[in-house]
């Protein structure tokens, strides 16, 4: 009996431990935390009609609870965008936008506005790798003379969801799964793809995410987009809706997927180191700053709703007006107080700029301020990296954790008998909101135009180059192959057919889905400019800050080594000498060179191109080094330019081992094939006069191909896959 009693007691304890455990997969209705059943968890309460989407209402207790609970889930790491880095810089106008706004930062061409820019990934923790497939944050804080202006954007112009109330669901689905905290820093898992299928509005963004945009070569080589729709108000009180654009001077370039995966392990800090190195070397990254503008009266003239964050504004309909330039020119002095404590708010705007009824923006405005309080405390805006550079004062905002500003005086309220700290009139620069008329009913809904989810995804896919389409198919296949729930990958194989039947059939074959036989939505073949990243090559060919490896071994030719190194460095490339060991490598003429790295400490994935100089014994020495041989093979498979001269030519030829790639075989000849440039001769072959597609010299041709980023034809013709196999 004693044993039985004891057993009962233990069972009772177990029951007490389990009383707060619920099964999420059951059929119990969704409720708030205080027990009322929720009828619509997907739309914030707002003023709306079939033809227009109005502002959200603060009275929505269901949305407020959902967002507030989500905002406070993580302390102190950011819930999203935890992995990032940043730098300081400046913003300069070269053309005033006074016809559209009164904002000084966009009208005063004599100003130089200081700024801080933070780049980031979205899904992973602070300890995740830089080069995972993910959206990249692109958040700019401009310290203007009228106060701080934050553009909290991404490197992709659209977003997954239309209504901010879904944001907790989106991030929960893409974050590690709750039962095992797997995976980290990637979207290849069941829950994310289940969410994508359940919300067809994600389709457009999902295609951008599966494109090469999600594996950028560098933070310095990706676009920035404000994503949300704001308003600009001019001195006559006229309103234009606006989207903000940042286009990099160096072009828009990406890694290839196998390379991105390897860099995750070889150098997980690759992007942040790349940014810091460029700035330290004085090669300051620059972006053109542009506006897309729609007059208020034209807002309803489009087949889509311009306030829908899952849609782009086609440049053919709404051209980009470039008016300024952003430059990053100073690295942080200490990471934690300047980068980790940097905090951004979509609601930080200055006079002349205002919000719109973009339902994603309206929710972000509510959420961002709240989440910064959770991370950094009530006085987060007082931190040095966050506080404005213009005079600021509030006699009401007081106390709270980590308060360090001291406000002297005897009153802390307004109005007061001293008229202390009075508000500013509009003429004095006081902020006023645009007096927008509202009409509609109080409802949980969006306008009718928000219901179309596939047209722009089709346009995006149709506008990609053939190589980008190939990469998109490989990306979908890789991601869905990691999903082990047949429901997930079979349904997604079918969903892809709404954009491209051919793509859906390729993916279904790879991942095990049922092969679709017809499109669920006809593809009209419409294309648009500005969607393929191959359109964003620099205006002039440049190898500025490109990382180029020179492989050497005992007996190398010092003359061709030194000449090529000087030629490349003179054009701003970062040149690294890679040898068998770092105690020194001896040239055939006796000079000793200490390599920057040795073969087993570095990999080809961390460089944009490779050159191998000649030398009587170099081919034999390199052929005995497995890493050196694989270096050439892997570089070719990753579509990178390769160059070699004299005795290095047979070494390169042997590693590639493909008849389709021609290499120079006779003296005084230069041959280029699939971005592999080889030749026989002396160092004069490395003289540079003209860089372009018709360049004749070996160094000229090599530099031209480096400036093109990759030789995509290798992959289109199957050579890269052949040699990788």
UniProtKB/TrEMBL annotation:
Co-factor requirement: heme
CDD domains in the cross-refs: GATase1_catalase
Binding, heme: 368
Residue stretches making up the Catalase core domain: 31-422
Family assignment from sequence similarity: Belongs to the catalase family.
PANTHER family reported in the protein's UniProt record: CATALASE, CATALASE-B
Name of the molecule in the record: Catalase
The organism of origin for this protein: Penicillium malachiteum
Origin organism lineage: Eukaryota, Fungi, Dikarya, Ascomycota, Pezizomycotina
């Amino acid at each position: 009996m004693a044993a039985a009693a004891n057993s009962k007691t233990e069972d009772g304890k177990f029951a007490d431990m389990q009383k707060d455990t619920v099964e999420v997969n059951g059929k119990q209705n969704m409720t708030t935390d205080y027990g009322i059943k929720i009828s619509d968890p997907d739309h914030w309460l707002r003023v709306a009609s079939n033809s227009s989407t109005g502002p959200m209402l603060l009275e929505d207790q269901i949305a407020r609870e959902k967002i507030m609970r989500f905002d406070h889930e993580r302390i102190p790491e950011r819930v999203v965008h935890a992995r990032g880095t940043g730098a300081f810089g400046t913003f300069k106008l070269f053309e005033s936008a006074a016809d559209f706004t009164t904002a000084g930062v966009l009208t005063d061409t004599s100003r130089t506005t200081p700024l801080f820019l933070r780049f980031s990934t979205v899904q992973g923790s602070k300890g995740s790798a830089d080069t995972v497939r993910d959206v990249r944050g692109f958040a700019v804080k401009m310290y203007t003379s009228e106060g701080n202006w934050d553009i909290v954007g991404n490197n992709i112009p659209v977003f997954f969801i239309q209504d901010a109330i879904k944001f907790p669901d989106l991030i929960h689905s893409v974050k590690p799964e709750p039962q095992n905290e797997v995976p980290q820093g990637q979207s290849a898992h069941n829950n994310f793809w289940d969410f994508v299928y359940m919300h067809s509005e994600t389709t457009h963004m999902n295609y951008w995410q599966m494109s090469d945009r999600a594996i950028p070569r560098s933070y310095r080589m990706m676009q920035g987009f404000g994503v949300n729709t704001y308003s600009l108000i001019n001195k006559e009180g006229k309103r234009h809706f606006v989207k903000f654009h940042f286009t990099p001077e160096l072009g828009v370039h990406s890694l290839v997927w196998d390379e991105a995966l390897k860099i995750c392990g070889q150098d997980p800090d690759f992007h942040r180191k790349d940014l810091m190195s460029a700035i330290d070397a004085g090669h300051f990254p620059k972006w053109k700053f542009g506006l897309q503008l729609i007059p208020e009266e034209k807002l309803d003239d489009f087949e889509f709703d311009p306030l829908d964050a899952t849609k782009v504004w086609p440049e053919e309909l709404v051209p980009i007006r470039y008016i300024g330039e952003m430059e990053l020119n100073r690295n942080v002095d200490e990471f934690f107080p300047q980068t980790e404590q940097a905090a951004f708010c979509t609601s930080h705007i200055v006079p002349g700029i205002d919000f719109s009824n973009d339902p994603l923006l309206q929710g972000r405005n509510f959420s961002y301020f709240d989440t910064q309080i959770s991370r950094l405390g009530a006085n987060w805006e007082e931190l040095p990296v966050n506080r404005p550079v213009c005079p600021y004062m509030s006699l009401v905002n007081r106390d709270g954790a980590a308060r360090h500003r001291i406000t002297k005086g005897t009153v802390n309220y307004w109005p007061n008998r001293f008229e202390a700290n009075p508000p500013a009139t509009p003429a004095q620069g006081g902020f006023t909101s645009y007096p927008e008329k509202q009409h509609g009913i109080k409802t949980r809904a969006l306008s009718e135009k928000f219901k179309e989810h596939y047209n722009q995804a089709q346009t995006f896919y149709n506008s990609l180059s053939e190589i980008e389409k190939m990469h998109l198919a490989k990306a979908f296949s890789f991601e869905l192959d990691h999903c082990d729930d047949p429901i997930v990958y079979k349904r997604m194989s079918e969903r892809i057919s709404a954009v491209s039947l051919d793509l859906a059939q390729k993916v279904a074959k790879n991942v095990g889905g049922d092969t679709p036989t017809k499109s669920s939505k006809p593809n009209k073949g419409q294309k648009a400019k500005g969607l393929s990243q191959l359109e964003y090559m620099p205006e002039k060919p440049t190898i500025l800050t490109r990382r180029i490896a020179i492989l050497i071994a005992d007996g190398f030719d010092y003359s061709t080594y030194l000449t090529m190194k000087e030629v490349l460095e003179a054009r701003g490339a970062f040149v690294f000498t890679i040898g068998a060991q770092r105690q020194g490598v001896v040239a055939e003429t006796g000079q000793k060179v200490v390599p920057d790295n040795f073969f087993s400490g570095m990999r080809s994935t961390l460089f944009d191109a490779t050159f191998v100089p000649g030398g009587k014994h170099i081919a034999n020495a390199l052929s005995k080094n497995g890493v050196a041989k694989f270096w050439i093979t892997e570089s070719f498979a990753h579509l990178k330019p390769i160059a070699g001269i004299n005795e290095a030519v047979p070494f390169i030829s042997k590693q590639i081992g493909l008849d389709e790639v021609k290499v120079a075989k006779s003296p005084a000849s230069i041959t280029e094939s699939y971005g592999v440039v080889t030749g026989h001769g002396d160092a004069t072959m490395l003289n540079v006069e003209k860089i372009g597609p018709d360049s004749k010299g070996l160094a000229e041709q090599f530099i031209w191909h480096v400036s093109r980023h990759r030789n995509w034809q290798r992959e289109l013709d199957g050579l890269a896959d052949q040699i990788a196999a």
